[in-house]
Amino acid sequence: MTPLLSVQSITKRYGPHVGCADVTFDLFPGEVIGIVGESGSGKSTLLNCMAGHLVPDTGKVVFDTRTDGPRDTIAMSEPERRMLSRTDWAFVHQHARDGLRMGVSAGGNVGERLMAVGERHYGDIRNKATDWLARVEIDETRIDDRPTTFSGGMQQRLQIARNLVTGPRLVFMDEPTGGLDVSVQARLLDLLRGLVRDMGLSAIIVTHDLAVVRLLADRLMVMKSGRVVEAGLTDQVLDDPQHAYSQLLVSSVLQV
Amino acid sequence: MIELNNVSKTFTLHNQGSAVIEVLSNVSLSVAPGECVALTGASGAGKSTLMRMIYGNYLTQKGEICIDGIDLVQAAPREVIALRRDVLGYVSQFLRVVPRVPTLEVVAEPLRAVGVSASEAEARAKVLLTQLNIPERLWSLSPTTFSGGEQQRVNIARGFAHQYPALLLDEPTASLDRTNREVVLCLIEEAKTRGAAIIGIFHDEAARDRICDREIDVTAFTPGIAA
After folding, report:
1. Given an 8 Å threshold on Cβ–Cβ distance, is A186 in contact with B57?
2. Which of A187, A236, B115, B193 fits a 20 to 30 Å CA distance from A195?
3. Separation between Cα atoms, residue A5 and residue B195, nearest integer Å
4. What is the side-by-side order of every strand in the sheet holding B62-67?
5. Which helix (DSSP H) or strand (DSSP E) does residue B131 occupy?
6. What's the distance, Cα to Cα, between the start and end of chain B in Å?
7. DSSP labels for B137-198?
8. What is the dihedral of CA A211, A213, A216, A219, to 10 degrees?
9. Cβ–Cβ gap B78/A28 under 8 Å
10. ipTM above 0.85 for this complex
11. pLDDT tens digits for chain B (227 residues)?
12. B170: closest CA among B91, B72, B104?
């Protein structure tokens, strides 16, 4: 099987400081991979390099495109990469404000991504937006309200709707449940799991919440000081960690 | 169906003075389709560890664990995931689920994962939940709030939803009353009849005698104890 995304020796330095170093892995269709590690371990740098927000110093990010098969997205032209990030890719930011247009209505936020891929029929766009608001459990009556009037959890769900409306194949998520209270987290996790299963999505989730990866991710990578120190099946890494740092990470979680 | 060759396991505790604990060494065993094998031995002998290794939950450093022709020790994570989805079932002692998901969906999920339609999967889930005496009014609720025995039964229903060719059972009859214990034993017997290879841990001796064809004393593989 061709991997959906093949990450090869990605290194990113900030001057003398290492962001992430020599990261290599393959992601297959329908797979969800979690990346965990403490703050500053390089997980967000890696995610941004993969998603095309940062240019890595070395390495390739090969994506299996619908039309031309595997292509190195770093060597792609800017318009091509932008098209990819509007269609087959989605990026869910930790802070919903970074991923939403706060001055545009909820329906507009969802509809905008549809228009970006060529939809022009207002009625169709509004219907799809309504449908997606329902899927992420936002009341239909709020469709014309701006996200500024939404709670944090609602904003995050709106961001997810905006991202998934175009039926992407790969979703990058940066701490998708960070900063939300636990009941909202549970609701969001349930929602994400359903979407991943029903749409056959592949996802890369950066988080420092081990409970989140246990429930969402098939595979797990543990990062420390910019390097992947351990990788494997999620439950195996969490229940039988091999590296000293993974053992420390797992044993440091407070039991509820 | 399940075949272990010279399997060994050590735990290295890096943050506790790098203590190395040898848990199991040179385990070899095989379980044929339609056969049920009990792991025995005192608490701490390594029964659960061995079971978790066979499921790929614990990493095996040495040896071979072949299930349906795939060596778990060498397999890539996605091969292990596929094996767990299609071939290898595991009923653990504890239920671990996403909060808010209704019981019926929790039980139907393994079937949905192998491509069974939602309606068919739910129908099977309903049959199992009824058999295991989970009242219908609880089906739409999340099992996270259920009693210990109820959670255990939901876990068993989930484990038997898809007809796995290989099954690992960790104390399936613990904390069950007599009626439900009987139901679970019947489920295991059914699985044997259809040809599943089963490895189980049973502290319930009567149950063990009734359904297991053989016993394997794990103590024989425990370096500290056997020596």
Report:
1. no
2. A236
3. 39
4. B19-31, B2-13, B62-67, B70-71
5. helix B118-131
6. 31
7. GGTTS-GGGS-HHHHHHHHHHHHHHS--SEEEEESTTTT--HHHHHHHHHHHHHHHHTT-EE
8. -140
9. yes
10. yes
11. 999 999 999 999 988 888 888 889 899 999 999 999 999 988 888 899 999 999 999 999 899 999 999 999 999 998 999 999 999 999 988 888 877 789 999 999 999 889 899 999 999 999 999 999 999 999 999 998 898 889 999 999 999 999 999 999 999 888 888 999 999 999 999 999 999 999 999 988 888 999 999 999 998 888 865 44
12. B91
Taking the C-alpha atoms of residue B67 and residue B4, their distance in angstroms, rounded to an integer, is 9
**Amino acid letter for position B107:** V
The size of the A-B interface in CB pairs under 8 A is 54
AA identity, residue B181: R
Nearest to A101 by CA among A69, A65, A148: A148
Question: Which among B58, B59, B78 is the nearest to A31, CB-wise?
Answer: B78
Distance from CA of B76 to the nearest CA of A (A): 8
How far is A155 from B9, CA to CA, in rounded Å? 47
Strands (E), chain A: 5-14, 17-27, 32-36, 58-65, 69-72, 89-92, 170-174, 202-206, 219-224, 227-233
CA distance B166 to chain A (A): 20
Contact A81, A71 (CB under 8 A): no
The residue to which tokens 């778990």 are assigned: B72
At A19, is the secondary structure helix, strand, or coil? strand
Retrieve residue B85's tokens. Answer: 């989805």
The rounded distance, in Å, linking the Cα atoms of A191 and A132 is 12
Q: Are strands A32-36 and A202-206 parallel, antiparallel or unpaired?
A: parallel
Measured N-to-C along each axis, helices A182-199 and A152-164 cross at an angle, to the nearest 10 degrees, of 10
Option in B15, B59, B99 nearest A240 (CB):
B59
Cα dihedral B108, B109, B113, B119 in deg (nearest 10): 40
Distance CA B127, CA B85 (A): 21
DSSP A200: T
Q: Which residue has the tokens 């079971």?
A: B51
In this structure, are strands A5-14 and B197-201 parallel, antiparallel, or unpaired? unpaired
Long-range contacts of A27-31 (CB under 8 A, 24+ apart): A27/A3, A27/A170, A27/A202, A27/A204, A28/A1, A28/A3, A28/A4, A28/A202, A28/B78, A29/A1, A29/A4, A29/A169, A29/A200, A29/A202, A30/A200, A30/A201, A30/A202, A31/A4, A31/A202, A31/A218, A31/A219, A31/B78, A31/B81
A189 contacts on B by Cβ (under 8 Å): 98-99
